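Running log. JK asked me to keep both predictions on one page so they can be read side by side. First protein, sequence followed by its tokens:
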Amino acid sequence: MIDLRLPPFAGLLIAGVIATLAMPVHAALDPAYVDRLGKVYTGIQQVAFERKSCQELAPASAKATDSAYADWKKSHRAFLGEFDARFERYLRSLPDAGKPAKYQQYRKIMAGKFAEQGLAWRAQMAHLSKPELQTRCEQFPRALQGVLDPQQKYASEIATLRSQAPLR
């Protein structure tokens, strides 16, 4: 079976940035909440990273990859909407986020970090042999139901986030 993960430290990059941005907030957000949110939201982004990498590096699998991704997004619409809202609420809770320029700065910082992680994901996949890459991309639809699915991968974190801070 092909390992579908980045090196152990890579998933913490975004969580670390999220935690760093939240530090001046003090009591506004619990650091454990921010860490869990970072893990889950990064897991969601990793699904898109895998899809894009497969599209670019294994174009023969692009149609199946795109179809599986569209189906996954459709079946996970509520979950994705919930975590987009949680991420948005987090960004708006940061210091001075009520000021449009500061809020946009936070969004740009996070977009840049996600772009960097996406490039790292693609670079890791580019180092696979052709057969490994082809197999990995062919397995993308199945991975969406297992190892890549953030709802399964981070079930404990999601349950804690939901109990700690229900969306209203």
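And the second, directly underneath as requested:
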Amino acid sequence: MELESRDSCFEANNAEDLLSALRKKETHIIIQGDYKSEFEENTQLPLTEKEQLGFNLGTRGSGGFWSEIPFQIINKLSSGKKQQKEIDSKIRKYTLKKLNEREILLYLRQLDY
């Protein structure tokens, strides 16, 4: 996945911006600035490209389906902010790629197909 144009990317500088982009199912989201460290600390990060590839190969493609059910149950029962739980749930549809020390790119997994 190559980043074609930064103009087409949604830039998230806080949790509200990120949640808004996730609800709209933006195809590319850049998390930047001071929010990047907060995001990494508080969010259950999606798998990177290499991790996702290894997981899919190891489970013959069925791991994504079977892992979603327990995740949603645990997420509903866990304590924490409702906003953060919604971010954790919706972010599983995205793949993570670190652009540099201050920016992370999230893009929809379905763009890989």
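Observation for JK regarding the second prediction: The chain has a mean pLDDT of 78.
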